[in-house]
């Protein structure tokens, strides 16, 4: 690997004056840039550098994937610059230039923890509706009512849930935030409106308050919690430490409940209703055009993380109206990508890509997750992305023109079809079929250029492999193929073959005899080299680098010799999950290129120490 790689990257991204913030995790440089166009134009040049695996532009960050050598490259890049010494100045600059992307990051952080619950509740609600339409379940039965409350509770109590996730994002007391929004949906508060409903005026110490119904709302909880974060910081700045336990929550509740009821609540409700009205007006004006536009660009939105700007609108529509027009259009984009993925499977001659395509296709069909297909196929080959956009636009026009409705917030896949059961269900299915067929046909016609998609491999000096070897699972848990990894930089296999594991415990053991060749200072990732030359990286969780080592403990250091089954690391699985992080762990053979094959032996539930990978010279 070139000794000047760091400086080459610095030059190609526009120099230190163009970098507003730079950090690194175990595998990649993460930069926020004042002018991202400079780096974007030089993206191909950066990817071709010796030592760079790939480049990912996501959520306002320009990420250069390097691998275990990233700490050294980071040091090279910042050497003789003031990037670290002027971090606060750069951060301030970033806040002025990337406010929209920062907003997307905030919205994503608030809603991401709730997405599995939305998905599960959505399918649950769809199955209940399907059962009633097939006359399997009477709407007057107690069973129906119990199933209804079970499947819709997430929306009724949505303000409280959002208050909790927003508090985690804004770094304030989540229980106080939950209590504030809980107060506004208590029966006693609802009784104040009497028969008048929304718009009722009451008085709090002589101050008039306009009352609204806050169950199922989105914006008021976010605004109130954001305000609480500033109030809480201010209170802690002047209340003595030994009195904060009592008086910070007391004063917060006293101030924020009436303030939210009188200001943030009504404003948030009106904003939510206004956005919903605009969307519905647009769909009624010309659903064909609106459907083609949203269905066509949604996959592009996902690439840049912009879907977070629209997700709250869909959730608000479901909560307030009971249906939404946009969710079906996002599903159109999913099936357009699915068709493009099948087209790639047909056209590719690479056996590994064929297997990856099937895995990505199943991910869309059964989970509504498109990222593996978008990043591993669409961005990699470019032309399948064109097919996906075309498919989403054509099918989206049909779905939008026929005004198909979703009755729950779900991700578009075969398993979520019940969420669309109603008068527009057949047009919705026809639209999805059109998306899939067009996406597939366009991709097959355009073809894929596999000769121009190979990314520069990491050519750093390494131990030459000498024999076949079995890699044992370092952690107990549920093992899946690497294509199922939640981080596209791992899932597309560009860093090497391996597997992903959903841990059932927080202990990490040595998968072979060898040496610790890299231990990240936050202890969330470790690099090992076996006595036979296999280089393995174990990366615990997604974005867990942000924890700065909290909840992680190491029992070895870089350079230590290790024995198979030796305990290397421990991480507090429960606390990391409570902090809102995905704990899925990837195990990658970093020098995959040195081997004839790297084969996953056993998927499913495994204990640590079980044979999981076979590497063959």
From TrEMBL:
Swiss-Prot/TrEMBL keywords = Cell membrane, Kinase, Membrane, Phosphotransferase system, Sugar transport, Transferase, Transmembrane, Transmembrane helix, Transport
**What stretches pass through the bilayer?**
103-124, 144-163, 205-231, 243-267, 287-310, 322-346, 358-378, 385-413, 425-448
Which part of the chain is the PTS EIIC type-1 domain? 105-458
**Record-linked SUPFAM superfamilies:** Duplicated hybrid motif, Glucose permease domain IIB
Instruction: Please list the residue ranges annotated as the PTS EIIA type-1 domain.
Output: 487-591
Where does the PTS EIIB type-1 domain lie?
3-87
Please give the chief subcellular localization of this protein. Answer: membrane
What InterPro entries does the database record attribute to this sequence?
Answer: Dup_hybrid_motif, Glu_permease_IIB, PTrfase_EIIB_Cys, PTS_EIIA_1_perm, PTS_EIIC, PTS_EIIC_1, PTS_IIABC_b_glu, PTS_IIB_1
Superkingdom as given in the UniProt entry: Bacteria
The UniProt record lists the keyword Cytoplasm: no
- Pfam families, per this entry? PTS_EIIA_1, PTS_EIIB, PTS_EIIC
Q: Which Gene3D superfamilies match?
A: Glucose Permease (Domain IIA), Glucose permease domain IIB
Q: Where in the cell is it found?
A: Cell membrane
The active site annotation covers 25
Per the record, membrane topology reads:
Multi-pass membrane protein
Report what the protein is called.
PTS beta-glucoside transporter subunit EIIBCA
Organism of origin: Lactobacillus kullabergensis
């Amino acid at each position: 690997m070139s000794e000047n790689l760091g400086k080459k990257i610095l030059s190609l991204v526009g120099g230190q004056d163009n970098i507003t913030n730079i950090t690194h995790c175990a595998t990649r440089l993460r930069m926020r840039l004042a002018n991202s166009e400079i780096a974007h134009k030089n993206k191909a040049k950066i990817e071709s550098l010796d030592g760079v695996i790939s480049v990912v532009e996501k959520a306002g960050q320009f990420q250069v994937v390097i691998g275990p050598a990233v700490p050294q490259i980071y040091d090279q890049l910042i050497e003789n610059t003031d990037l670290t010494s002027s971090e606060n100045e750069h951060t301030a600059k970033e806040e002025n230039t990337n406010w929209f992307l920062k907003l997307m990051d905030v919205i994503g952080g608030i809603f991401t923890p709730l997405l599995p619950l939305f998905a599960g509740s959505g399918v649950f609600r769809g199955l209940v509706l399907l059962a009633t339409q097939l006359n399997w379940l009477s709407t007057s039965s107690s069973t129906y009512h119990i199933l209804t409350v079970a499947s819709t509770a997430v929306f009724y109590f949505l303000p409280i849930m959002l208050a909790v996730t927003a508090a985690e994002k804004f770094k304030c007391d989540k229980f106080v935030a939950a209590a504030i929004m809980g107060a506004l949906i208590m029966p006693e508060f609802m009784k104040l409106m009497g028969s008048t409903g929304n718009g009722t005026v009451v008085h709090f110490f002589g101050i008039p308050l306009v009352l609204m119904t806050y169950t199922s709302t989105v914006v008021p909880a976010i605004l109130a919690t954001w305000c609480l974060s500033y109030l809480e910081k201010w209170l802690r700045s002047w209340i003595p430490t030994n009195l904060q336990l009592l008086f910070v929550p007391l004063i917060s509740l006293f101030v924020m409940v009436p303030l939210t009821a009188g200001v943030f609540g009504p404003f948030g409700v009106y904003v939510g209703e206004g956005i919903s009205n605009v969307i519905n007006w647009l769909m009624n004006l010309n659903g064909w055009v609106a459907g083609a536009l949203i269905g066509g660009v949604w996959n592009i939105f996902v690439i840049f993380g912009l879907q977070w700007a629209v997700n709250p609108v869909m959730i608000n529509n479901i909560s307030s109206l009971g249906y939404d027009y946009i969710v079906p259009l996002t599903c159109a984009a999913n099936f357009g990508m699915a068709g493009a993925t099948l087209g790639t499977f047909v056209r590719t001659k690479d056996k590994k890509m064929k297997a990856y395509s099937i895995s990505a296709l199943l991910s869309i069909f059964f989970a509504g997750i498109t990222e593996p297909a978008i990043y591993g196929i669409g961005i990699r080959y470019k032309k399948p992305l064109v097919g996906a956009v075309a498919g989403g636009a054509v099918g989206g026009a049909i779905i939008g023109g026929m005004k198909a409705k979703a009755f729950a917030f779900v991700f578009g896949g075969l398993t979520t079809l019940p969420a669309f059961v109603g008068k527009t269900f057949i047009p919705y299915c026809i639209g999805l079929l059109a998306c899939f067929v067009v996406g597939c046909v366009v991709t097959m016609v355009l073809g894929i250029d596999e000769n121009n998609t190979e990314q520069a491999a990491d050519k750093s000096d390494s131990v030459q492999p000498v024999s076949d070897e079995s890699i044992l699972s370092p952690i107990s848990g549920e093992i899946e193929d690497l294509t199922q990894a939640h981080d596209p930089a791992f899932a597309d296999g560009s860093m090497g073959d391996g597997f992903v594991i959903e841990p059932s415990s927080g202990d990490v053991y040595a998968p072979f005899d060898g040496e610790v060749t890299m231990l990240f200072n936050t202890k969330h990732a470790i690099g090992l080299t076996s006595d036979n030359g296999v280089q393995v990286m174990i990366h615990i969780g997604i974005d867990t680098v942000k924890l700065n080592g909290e909840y992680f403990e190491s029992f070895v250091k870089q350079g230590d010799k290790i024995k198979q089954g030796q305990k290397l690391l421990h991480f507090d699985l429960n606390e990391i999950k409570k902090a809102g992080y995905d704990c899925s762990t990837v195990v990658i053979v970093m020098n995959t290129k040195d081997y004839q094959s790297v084969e996953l032996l056993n998927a499913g539930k495994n204990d640590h120490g079980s044979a999981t990978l076979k590497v063959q010279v």
